[in-house]
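Q: For a teaching session next week I want to show students how multiple molecules come together into a single three-dimensional assembly. I've collected the sequence lines for a complex. Could you give me the predicted structure tokens for the whole thing so I can convert them for display?
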Amino acid sequence: MYPQQVQHYLRTFFTENNCQFVNDTDHYLTVQLTIDMDKRIMNRPYYWQYVENVGGVPCPSQLTLITDQTKLKENIKGELVHFGSPRLGQLFQVTHEMGTFIQMFEQVEESNKRPILTPWLVVNYKVSYYSNQTKEMLHSLGLNLMNGSIIKDFHASLSEINIAPELPTNAFLLPFVIKPIRGLERLDGVVENFIQNDDHSWAEQAEKRWQRDIRVLEFFYEGVEEKPESYEMEKTALQQQYEARIKIEIINGGLFYLK
Amino acid sequence: MIIEKSSEWAEGLIKRLENVEPWDNWTLYNMSYEIVKNNLITEFTGLQSPKYLTNLKPLEHQLNVAETVIERMNGKAILADEVGLGKTIEAGLILKEYLIRGLVKKALILAPASLINQWVEELHYKFYIPAVPYKKNTPLEHCEVVVLSMDTAKKSPHRELIFAQDYDMIIIDEAHKLKNHKTKIYEFVQSLKKKFCLLLTATPVQNDVFELFNLISLLKPGHLGNYEAFQSAFSASKHDLEHDDYLKELVNQVMVRNLRQDTGIEWTNRQVNIIPIQFSNEEKEVYEMIVNLKNISPIFSGAFSMITLQKEMCSSKEATFLTLNKMRQNCSNPEENASVENVMQRLMALETNSKAEKAYEIISQAKDKVIIFTEYKASQAYLQWYLHTKGITSVLFNGKFNKNKRDYMKHLFKEHAQVLIATESGGEGINLQFCHHVINYDLPWNPMKLEQRIGRVHRLGQEHDVHIYNLAIDNTIEIDILQLLYKKIDVFEKVVGDLDDILSAFKKTI
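A: Of course. Below is the structure for the complete assembly, covering every listed component.
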């Protein structure tokens, strides 16, 4: 993420969370936090406990975030925020927490007939391969909870549909044939199946490198009766360096009622 | 294969379906997806880090090093670029890449005390890595990236505190300090877990090939075999390398080294001059009297102290006097004492210093900023006085100065003085690209020290050809030093690669 992308992100994030801007430039911004946001990101639980116990006037913080120090001419004190900074990491985490489960409805025009909406379970998966290298993949899967059909790359297709969190008046929602939790199991299976059929030469190569390095290490300590602690240490290090792991994470998802 | 997954999301979904908790915000949902999508690492290979580093334009060779270390060396390597090519940048690129890829969560950086702040600043400003300089009460468990000195790290209680952490990456700057496997710091680094590890040094071989063996055995024990195997294969005598090519091949699997000439950057030239100097008759006489002292008193028969005295005599009478006087106090026999006193009188009666005169001649011809390196503090003081009598302004510099004083001295040199006189220990960690004349007033035994000295001025940003003057007095120990320097450079070239002209391109003619 470039500084201007970070700036854009911060602006949207705080606007969505109803925080007012005190200063808003292209390289830094000062934002008045809401009570809820202060509790989430300012890490001062005792203050809030105190205020609530004595019934004091709450005073949520103002936060100044600088995204591009090189453009800073004013004498502004604030936190430097950039990709990789702890603050941005924290805001990503908050975004993630606040955007994990969604229920959306296609906005259909009222016509003579009562519109019928079909439920879909949508799950966005991130799959990561780790050894001494990394590769990540994103799978956005949609499952029709009426007939079990599955659509890949579902998130991208949503951009063409007019959806909103409100149920359109008069719309009829079809009941689930497949329960959402069973649906989730099916989608998990799709992802696992994908992983199984993927090319895993990366893991084989890592295993080869691992074995080769173990042989090198063994050679160093050849003939040493009582191996020192550093031998075990090196072995652990090699395991952590090369061992192949796969991680499946769910970024977010939810129910979509579509025509 | 290990597959990790969590059931957390399923539980959260059930709560929403049962209306226990509310559904989330659509915009934040989209943002969350976009963040993951934009930051997705779609390939095992290639560097992600450069696109995030807006304050840095890495050079081609630096990017190549980062890629090679990560992809071919699996994150364990000696970064051995010549001085001034940006080893810190290379290490920063590699660290950043691993942080982005989630393969490193915690990193430990060991650097000389004088360079700690420079590391912290570069990591912050150029790499957006929140590195912390280690202080007494730094809570290591909360610091992702910490920088501290080897001297601190190896001592209790810091040592234990470091061992209690789980570091994924260890970076060691000026790693040639680990060349001796019998030291405490070597043992300390050996017991650290090294999942990923970078050793930075421009001078992986200083004296003999065992130093390289020790470094590589820290990084990848066994890569060069164990000690016995290595010794029998590679050393009949320490300077004689039989299996050069084989060794070179093995070394290149764990070491990257860029030379100035292959960086594609237009480097200015190095003009190395050996300046032979003749002692005056009086100086020569005193020099020989000193050499002769070993026949007069057993105090002077030790090779090491005699060599020191000879070297000092080639530097200044002030330096010689201090040592001579100290040694005289050990002479119990009055006759011996008297002989030494006699030498000291003759020494102090000397009115000229031929080498200092030559140095002055070079300075006045250069009509420009000059750095003089000497090995002795007494010579340093003498030279300042001597140059002052000739109307030449100078500032002193040594490694014990703290950062503020260093910066101030550098400033004084840049703005006000013509000459900077530095002792050996002032060689590291100061960059003086605005100057392009270096006088090696005394020669060190170690060619890499010479390279470190020259590296202060001959680095990125130097716009002029760099002139180096190596002063050596004929018919003295300095000629032996020169020859030994050539021999050592030869070992280095066989194993590591060509060295820029440190001494002179015409070495065969000596």
